[in-house]
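pinned: reference chain
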Amino acid sequence: MSVKKLYAGAKLRETRQKLGLTQKDFAKKLGVSLPYLNQMENNNRPVSTTVVLALAREFGFDVTELSAGDSERLVSDLREVMADPVLADVAPPLTDLRLTASNAPAFARAFLHLHQAYRQTHERLASLDEALGRGDSRSLPSPWDEVRDFFHYCDNYIDAVDRAAENFATPGGGERNVRVRAVSALGNLGVTVSFEETDMLRHYDAAQKRLVLSQRAATESQTFQLLLQVALLQQDKLLEATLDLARFQNDAARGIAKIGLANYFAGAAMMPYRPFLDAARELRHDLELLSVRFGASIEQVAHRLSTLQRPGMKGIPFFFVRVDQAGTITKRHSATRLQFARFGWACPLWNVHRAFEAPGRFLRQLAETPDGVRYISLARDVSKPGGHWGAPDRRFSISLGCEIEHAPALVYADDLDLSRPDIFEPIGISCRICERENCHQRSVPPLERRLTIDLNTRKTLPYEVG
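pinned: its structure tokens
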């Protein structure tokens, strides 16, 4: 089996610049010549094993950061943007997109931002009443999209917040009841906590320093909201400093991101990094057992598993997604090569959609994407009851998965024959950029391919993809 060469010039150059070293000094410390370093930084040569070892030895560098994860994510996003009809006639080949993502990642992100601004302008023109009502004609990305991309490109791991949550939950390395600790921390801040019959999950009265939580909510939801309030009050300086570094373009995005960071703190405090990673490995990522051990919901556990990307102590790279009944992606993150569509819906062949038909059950799927990468995917519905008669349920489905090489570490793969190629179902990302020619569930043709129409013949699709 051939070994894939590692091209990480942009990351190598970024590392050198952070260390404040010239190419000459950096080459000397890595034990290579100046021309050789220059070629690696420009992706004319792969990063050698000697350099990888020297990075770890000389600088304590986590060599897993040299992986192509961020580059693959950029390529996926660029491909989707290039599938926009306005660019269909000028879309560059995939090789050019990969070169751009690896050699000029800052330019690639700037282009994505430009396209996002174009989409925002187009949407505002399509809904003129709304635009006039806001009195805002600037073509800025929506606050929601801006925040989503922030977490997306942080690999869904915020180190400072994660470590602060871990220190809060396990002071001195000793585990404690995090719910009790949260109430105590709020009490030390002069905040009283009460549980009442209310439709509001959480309400904080800043003037009276009074926090009211719904007694109808599940215990894990109450604990999460307690910790979220701790983050907003006790960890405010840390959250604000993180937001300053992110440089959001408007107050709305900053506000959404602050809630996102507080949510992150709450989840990380309920499931502190080291104890949770150890338990995940011990229990072989059994979501139900992890849920019981940490007093968290299935969705909270699945989402936490997708954040275990701490340098030097990484867990399995998972993807995590949540969809509603219409197929709209409401949460998404991937530490794998599988990157979700930024716009539109998920592939209908994916088991995350079938979970609505089997409430309370875990569905397993072995799947293969058009690039030949194989995955194991676990899906389950996570419906949330309204809390009283007449209140509507909120219905969602989640999926957690990883590349097949990690399957032996999952209890869900124990009885599956992973050696059979026919057991892997073909799935895609979204119809607009999917390359499969004979998909029976295709809703729209791929924008990058030529279509052939035969008026005298009708197959599964009314056209053939050329």
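why pinned: The first strand starts at residue 192 and ends at 196. The domain at 316-430 is CATH 3.30.450 (Beta-Lactamase).
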